[in-house]
Amino acid sequence: MVGAIASGQMAEHIGRKGSLMIAAIPNIIGWLAISFANDSSFLYMGRLLEGFGVGVISYTVPVYIAEISPQSTRGALGSVNQLSITLGIFLAYVLGMFVPWRLLAVLGTLPCTLLIPGLFFIPESPRWLAKMNLTDDFETSLQVLRGFETDITAERAVASANKKATIGTGLLVLQNLCGINGILFYASRIFRAAGFTNSDLATCALGAIQISTAGTTLSLLAVSVAFFLKDNLPHDAHSDYILSMVSLVALVAYIITFSFGMGAIPWLIMSEILPVGIKSFAGSFATLANMLTSFGVTMTANLLLSWSAGGTFASYMVVSAFALVFVILWVPETKGRTLEEIQWSFR
């Protein structure tokens, strides 16, 4: 959460690359603190440092991708970011089954360490350079990215900044209220409740299929109905097996639809609709709201599952349905449009 608060100002004053480079350092130290921990204080310190780094990266990477991408590929590149996160989570699941947690923490330092020299081989965001009046660097960055000079003018924040901030923050809050973190954190417990004996294997499989697009509401509806029926119908082996399979298929469908839908798009939309003038503050606020909501969902999921598995998924379904209405009524189409054209659409 601290990283989320600081991320906007860091990206504003030292650039997107500088923010990512700084964020890599606490990530490395955090993983090492966890790996060599002698007591819980080192584990807490490591998690705090990791949280700061992730908070900065969660805001900066989508903004950087949106600002360097051509309009024709911006959406696809934003989705690749979420896909990369998903594959990283899956890899951590798999490695965690075979290597000790201390070694896993050491392995966590590798991508953070590679990030620092890797940043020297990519250009700074041309839009940030233009905002800082670094004309020569701006043109050089565009030549590296496009192969030719592109006229990128400073965005005009004439449109309603409040509406843009509301849309960006709303999407990031709804992203977590759909229940993704609660489901992933307590996947083993959910599968046990659904009747699977090898819940760890099912959890690993759940991580493996976080790759696709479209609506989560119907998937959550199917899961909640399956759990309600399992809790209230007379038990027999045949019906329990059918309801368990319905739960598994629906959860798989939920993860698939979430990953390239509410998983990837809110970060991309937030980075696209916020004009340069308010991007640092509003982006930090939206990222903080996302982190707070993620914390809240993770902390309440266990209590909700203890109350009612079906009721838990029904609650997430209602939020997903509201998110669908929110997107239809408020969120503009950004596909195939430049960032400047998106700003003009709010006029």
From TrEMBL:
Q: Which PROSITE patterns match?
A: MFS, SUGAR_TRANSPORT_1, SUGAR_TRANSPORT_2
Keywords of the record: Membrane, Sugar transport, Transmembrane, Transmembrane helix, Transport
The record's subcellular location field reads: Membrane
Q: Where is the Major facilitator superfamily (MFS) profile domain?
A: 1-335
Q: How does it sit in the membrane?
A: Multi-pass membrane protein
Give one Pfam hit by family name: Sugar_tr
Q: Which GO terms describe its cellular component?
A: membrane
Q: Which GO terms describe its molecular function?
A: transmembrane transporter activity
The entry sums up its family as follows: Belongs to the major facilitator superfamily. Sugar transporter (TC 2.A.1.1) family.
Q: What is this protein called?
A: Sugar transporter ERD6-like 4
